Amino acid sequence: MTKSSMLTGFYRLSPKERIKLVKEFADLTDEETSLLQSTGSLPMVTADRMIENVIGAFQVPLGIAVNFLINKKNYLIPMAIEEPSVVAAASYAAKMARDSGGFFTSSTDPVMIGQIQAVGIKDPYAARMRVLGAKEEILKKANDQDPLLVSLGGGAKDLDAKVIHATTGPMVITELYVDCRDAMGPNAVNTMAEAIAPLVEQITAGHVYLRIISNLATKRLVRAWCTVPKETVGGEEVVNGIIQAYAFAAADPYRAATHNKGILNGIIGVVIATCNDHRAVEAGAHAYAAHCGGYRPLSIWEKNANGDLMGSIELPMAVGIIGGAVRTHPIAKIALKILNVKTATELGEVLAAVGLAQNLGALRALANEGIQKGHMRLHARNIAFAAGATSDIVDMIADKLVKERKIRMDRAKELIDEYGRAGKS
Ligand code: MEV
After folding, report:
1. For the residues 33-45, what does the mean pLDDT come to?
2. Is 261 annotated in the active site?
3. Strand, helix or coil for residue 301
4. Whose CA is closest to atom 3 on ligand 1?
5. pLDDT by residue (tens digit) across 81-136?
6. Which residues contact 269 (CB under 8 A, 6 or more apart)?
7. Is 31 a residue of the active site?
8. Potential cystine with 360: which of 93, 161, 231, 404 (Cβ 3.0-4.6 Å)?
């Protein structure tokens, strides 16, 4: 009999009851269901409050990237990531940058954009003028929604309006600029956007559909830069190789996507460790990479007059240190304590520096010996573990796999068997 996924009222059940249903549906073993129930540092009751239909919690390794000096302040960087070599590469790059003072940063105010879409307007250009003319009234209505944010120096600060020509006809898009201070911002921005919608309908004589934050956060930018002496980076040839790697990314979107993926390896690790919304950060980063036309690398590498390597990066960074999951998840709270950042803007700037470091680590390896050497050692350990190697033999099995250049599960199992037989005889 086929089992149905139509589970009415599933959301009303306790996690334990849900696990029981999932167990029946997916033929889970007792061991698998008890693993689901052991949620580690995120208690099941907390997880159950965070999202819907919870049956467990998912853990990834949490590592610390070391050596970071940003604006002359020392930072330890917690990163939640499943990929080997990322934490090591960031730490190594941060050490290289330290030789000339580390990373320096700047940023805009933490302003997010809320969009209100009005359609069916007879005179869209005149309607745009009316929206701009009603700015004070609209901002007041928006700020009435969040007196706390306003009292902290944030709130709706400005607005703009544009006419776009969509497949369905012209639309007037009102854009509200909200300073979110230490919050990531969607709750504040979406509440304001929804609250001003009736006013926008009245002013434009149109019909409002969408009222939502934009993840292309061009008003919430962070920047970081560093200089790495050519001797530190490995000599003139390596500097040239890194600049060639950048030029490749600047000229080819296929390479730029991977270049930016490397940057996000570092950034997203920290974003997840602090329980921020990594989809928002990634969407913003990629959209920003493409917002001047073609898809471009988020960082730039060039040589200074001395032949040293100069790197810089600029991207939107919608992260917070208050509200939402950031303050609910026990590990995220500890990650923020380790980071010791005082504002969301400081966190954003740290993230820019981490992204630049990650990019430097990747490009230095790619322009030099390649990335596989370092990757393979860790990969071999993972394979050895997955094949059943116990911790006393895992390194030995991994070394053999690397030496034989056969980093495969079947070979790992053979080696474990051979070791077992040798041990018994
Ligand atoms: C791998 O996760 C990231 C890299 O591919 C980034 C890059 O190529 O610049 C190494």
Report:
1. 96
2. yes
3. strand
4. 262
5. 999 999 999 999 999 999 899 999 999 999 999 999 999 999 999 999 999 999 99
6. 63, 79, 80, 81, 86, 87, 354
7. no
8. 93
